[in-house]
């Protein structure tokens, strides 16, 4: 995805043009997680069990100029590129 691309938001069906991209704006690659064991098996319930990847990872924030409304910021995984700018 680059500036000037035509994008589609699947949730609402809107089309727009990418105006600005903020790289690595939100998220993390890894997180401390609890495995959900019963309390009687935990030595310390405040300590995480594992470090594992997150569901979305690091996301970019994209400003989209919509055809039917004002510009708006969305996360990159919410948009699909319809056509790429050259």
Compact summary:
With 86 residues, the chain is mostly beta strands. 0% of the residues lie in helices and 49% in strands.
Q: What do you see in this structure?
A:
It is built from no helices and seven strands. With 86 residues, it is an all-beta fold. It has one domain (6-83). The strands form two sheets. It has a five-stranded antiparallel beta sheet, with no helix packed on it. The protein has a two-stranded antiparallel sheet with strand order 3-4. The termini are close together. The model has no long low-confidence stretch (mean pLDDT 83).
**Into which percent range does the helicity of residues fall?**
under 10%
- Mean pLDDT, as a whole number? 83
Major sheet strand order: 6-5-2-1-7
Following the backbone from N to C, one meets helices and strands in this order, namely EEEEEEE
Low-confidence stretches: none
Q: Helical region count?
A: 0
| Beta-strand percentage range | over 45%
Overall 3D form: elongated
Q: Please, how many domains?
A: 1
* Main sheet makeup: 5 strands, antiparallel
Query: Over the alpha carbons, how many angstroms does the gyration radius reach?
Result: 19 Å
């Amino acid at each position: 995805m680059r500036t000037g691309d035509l994008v589609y938001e699947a949730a609402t069906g809107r089309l727009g043009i990418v105006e600005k991209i903020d790289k690595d704006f939100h998220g993390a690659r890894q997180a401390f997680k609890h495995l959900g064991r019963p309390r009687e098996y935990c030595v310390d319930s405040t300590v995480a069990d594992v470090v594992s990847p997150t569901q979305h990872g690091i996301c970019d924030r994209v400003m989209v100029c919509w055809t039917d409304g004002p510009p708006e910021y969305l996360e990159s995984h919410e948009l699909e590129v319809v056509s790429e700018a050259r």
